[in-house]
Amino acid sequence: MAGKARVSIEWLSGCSGCEVGIVDLHEKLLTVLGEIDLVRIPILMDTKEYVEADVGIITGSIRTDHDIHAAHAMRKACKAIIAFGVCPVYGGPQGAGNAHTTQELLDGAYVHNPTTSTTEVPSDVPQLLEGNRPLDSEIQVDVYIPGCPPHPAYIFEGLMSLLRGREPKIGRHNVCYNCTRTMTKSDVTSIRRTFEGNFDPKTCFLTQGCLCFGSVTLDRCMAPCPGVGVPCFSCGGPSESVILEPQKDVRTEVATRMAHLTKIPMEDIMREIESQAKTHFAYAMASPVFREKPTFLLKKWTQRRSDA
Amino acid sequence: MARKITIDPITRIEGHARVEIEVDDNNNVTSSLFKVLDFRGFETFLSGMQVEMMPTITARICGT
Known about the structure:
The complex is a heterodimer.
Chain A (H helix, E strand, L loop, with lengths): L4 E7 L5 H7 L4 H8 E5 L12 E7 L2 E3 H13 E7 L1 H5 L11 H10 L16 E6 L9 E3 L6 H13 L59 H4 L12 H5 L5 H12 L4 H10 L1 H4 L7 H4 L6 H10 L1
Parallel strand pairs in A: 1-2, 1-3, 3-5, 5-7
Antiparallel strand pairs in A: 4-6
Helix pairs in contact in A: 2-6, 9-10
Chain B lengths: L2 E5 L9 E7 L5 E8 L5 H4 L8 H5 L6
Antiparallel strand pairs in B: 1-2, 2-3
């Protein structure tokens, strides 16, 4: 690309942590700013219009009618679009809202909220859609950078490969690839949660009977969580094999692996994941990658849990 | 002259918001409304998630 590339950023329904993710480039930010001109970035500049740009970075998911308008305006104004972060790529944490109706979500916040006295739902604001959706349900996306927020190494490589017009040099491993824990067989017979005992910091969570989703999550994070005692919650979205192979789904994959490593019956693990579906599918629930799997029945599983 | 000033969207903040200010004939502000335009429904959808998930997921209400 001759001269500096014009980069425009827009946020849809999200938390703006991805904009902070860009700052996490630290010294590399100087390299990036040497090659780009930021022509629109609402968190820093007062450019309200959708100015023309070479690269459009979009954070956040499609949740309101304004998000739809903004996504199309960005697509029209930008030559290439990056879906930046787990929200535009897979719908993000607000995908859990798809287990409820939009009316239930509004009632929970404004009508039956024990901490406020209002009973009035705000008017004259962007209209909520019936569900939460990833960006490519509205517009064509050229580059996907998942992560919550994306890891600076992948932001850098993603941007640089796009600016230079080359393939990004990135791995296709799952989170286990960078995890320092060792997977071994054990005699554990029941599922335990992180607060239910002392877990060995050097042994795989699955071996110890604690659910961890690193083995079905794409490594776009370099596995920081398992290293500090937190099982993977899949904030980077599903692994390549889960994305590409229709018969593979997160629940069966994890249950098979854990049942193989421990003495916990596979059926128990499957039921546990289903009963905690909101937790275990937290970041990518709104994505067709999950929704179109024959085994994915979020509403039914969530309902069964609240009936119990 | 009475008028209404609208700033939409407000930039250099985290998130989406609009400000509407009404000014009367003597240039005094008669009303000022700050409207938050974002809604994702955390209040409701967090219910039913495991408690150990809360530190990571509630951090995503506002990432700045």
